[in-house]
Amino acid sequence: MEQIKNRTLFFGDNLDILREKIPDETFDLIYLDPPFNSKRDYNVLFKEGLQDSQAQIRAFEDSWRWTREAESVFEELVGVKKSKTKINQNISELMQALEKMVGRNDMLAYLVMMTVRLIELHRVLKKTGSLYLHCDPTASHYLKIILDTIFGKKNFQNEIVWSYNVGGKGKKHFARKHDIIFFYSKSDDYFFDGLAVGVHRDTGTKSFGGKIGVDKEGRKYQDKIVRKTGKVYRYYLDEGKIPEDVWQIQSIQSQSKERLGYPTQKPEVLLERIIKASSNEGDLVLDPFCGCGTTVAVAEKLHRKWVGIDITTLAINLVKHRLRDQFAGRIIKIHLDGLPKDMAGAKALFKKDPFEFEYWVLDLVNAMPAQSKTKGNMRGADKGIDGVITFVKGVDNKGDPEFGKAIVQVKGGGVQRKDIATLKGDLEREKADAGILITLEEPTRPMREEAVGAGVFKLSFSPKEFSKIQIITIKELLRLNRQPDLPSWTEPYYKEAKRVEEDFSKNQLGLGM
Fold first, then answer.
1. Alpha helices in 103-188 (DSSP H)
2. Which residue ranges of the chain lie beneath pLDDT 50?
3. pTM, 2 dp
4. Other CB atoms closer than 10 Å to residue 449's CB: what's the count?
């Protein structure tokens, strides 16, 4: 296996990537926030024009199904089928016990899929490293047993309760407003610096006793006495204290500039506490379910190396844009692994997953994916429209921008003249200014002639003409970086991340740039 590069985003199933591309004992810290198996669908909100809109597409389904794939992995874990992952007797017995307890259903599928990944994550974690698993009470009790089996009960360090202020009020139960974060080390010799994330030490009635004094140097302290032994412990108030295992951290509010529209986005302050406490500058951090990239963004800000993995091109694209927006003052080279770099890769992705192929193509031309599309319903609610590009085409009487739009259709299979006729009809129906056809195969001559015959559109403030129907091939996108010929002021489809104010006394030099 090759040495992992800093700032690498892997597209693909994290189990395959861990098994095939990650060497033993690579990472100093692993944080994962996997799907919770809550059987919900999550949508991503997108930016449209200069305002945030309710335009959204389904990002992922937060559930695991008992399928033939899950059954196959279960057979690997119990030892009746050969596995690329090293399985021991304890794992085999645990899986058999869980099967008897919960049955062969979606919950067992979730636990099976998490177990095989946690075994691989344990393998790629350094002996001095730590793992934080973020989950909710739906399955945390099962996951704790699995973690004890893989990491060893002696390496359990904390069950952290993240308490937040959002969530519904129950009529027949107390309000459910917390998540669980399990903290495990790989050995006794692990790095931890709790004072790096020290919190204010309470005094007075909140401190439950303790004498307050001032030493000769003018520093305030608090003395606490152990009643049984009479031993005195002195704590200086300016040093703070290591946080307890219940964290009162506000979730991201709906109007927060930090919010990017990704459904399971966690607040940066939560990841800052974990990364500061369990890693040093220059250490390598992994998030195998990186979503919108909060872990890798915080790692970048705190001068750690990082690697992210996600199974959707949508997430990989969002992370890429987030980092470039958030760290505009840095020269960041992001290594993308698993996304097509040539025609062979593009054809392979289309054959494997047309849905992800489509998302990959749309990002190449800065198009917002169409609403309501899923892998099971590729047409979605927009009747075959795959994406939309928004641009400024004029100014109204009040001086506000007027937006135009180009609809995008992506074709991975064979194309013919009738595809242009269909696109022209969609153009008229949607009252769009332009239609862009992006095709993996070379267009025919009649197709190009049909596109030319569709005419042009103009802007009120410019004499330039733009073709109403434009055809672009994947080959042109990859080799020539050809883009749709549209007005130059186009709006990004994603919500732009707030730029980090840089301290240029520190940098990422020497961190594998």
1. 106-124, 140-151
2. 41-60, 380-382, 508-513
3. 0.87
4. 11
